[in-house]
Amino acid sequence: MTPPQKTGRRVAVVVAHPDDEVLGCGGTIRRHILAGDEVWVVILADGETSREGTSGDKAVVERETAAQAAANILGVQHLAVHRFADNRLDAEPLLDIIRVVEQHIREISPDTVYTHHAGDLNIDHRRTHEAILTACRPQLSHPVTRMLAFETPSSTEWQQPSGALSFSPNWFVDISSTLENKMLALKAYSREMRPWPHPRSYQGIQHLARWRGATIGCDAAEAFMLVREIRR
């Protein structure tokens, strides 16, 4: 397969939990890396503290270690992990979340941002999307010119379409050459994976990538909704 065209983009992937970045756009991240783009992954919540039976700080540290391992596998150059409480971003003042995201946007100055779909079932995903929209308001000289929302297995498809925005992809990335990298990165998050036929199983992720690829005529793809694109 032809290698990705060199683009020189600065890319920010802003997600709620460690593993969302790989589930949602791991193959696309790897394509950016192969194209010579600079990629930052920003994770807002710890992904652990809402669970019964977890060992507190130890589980959080283990999840952060998994995030770094996944970043290394994909070749991500920059990883920032915050510790907002899991599944409680709706209890945080939205302004506090926005300020964290805004600080990263100022430091990164990305032209491309990937984040969660606005209609996901998970409240942390929805709040992350809100924070991104506010932090990336299209004001004069703002660097972000492309914003894309991905689907997260076991969150996006579990939302009832009558109660929220439906995920209707209109942007696809061919990950035929990088699906293997995505699957390897998911192994860093083996504790988060579930047995088939759960959508967050290895087979489920593979099937989704193959189906998204089939809909556009390639072996595997990741699907997105274009939130905004500004041509300058």
Q: What is the highest CATH level, the class?
A: Alpha Beta
Q: Remind me, CATH topology? A: Rossmann fold
* Contiguous helical run count: 6
Instruction: Strand order, main sheet: write it out.
Output: 3-2-1-4-5-7-6
Helical fraction: 25-40%
Tell me the total number of β-strands: 7
* Helical/strand content category: alpha/beta
Low-confidence stretches: none
The outline comes out as globular
Taken as a percent bin, the fraction of beta residues is 15-25%
Order of helices and strands: EHEHEHEHEEHHE
Question: What can you tell me about this protein's structure?
Answer:
The protein is an alpha/beta fold. It has one domain: Rossmann fold (3-Layer(aba) Sandwich). It has helices spanning 20-34, 57-74, 94-108, 123-135, 179-187, 202-216; strands at residues 10-15, 38-45, 78-84, 112-116, 146-150, 171-174, 221-229. Helix 1 (20-34) packs across helix 5, helix 2 runs antiparallel to helix 5 and helix 3 packs across helix 4. 42% of the residues are buried. The mean pLDDT is 95.
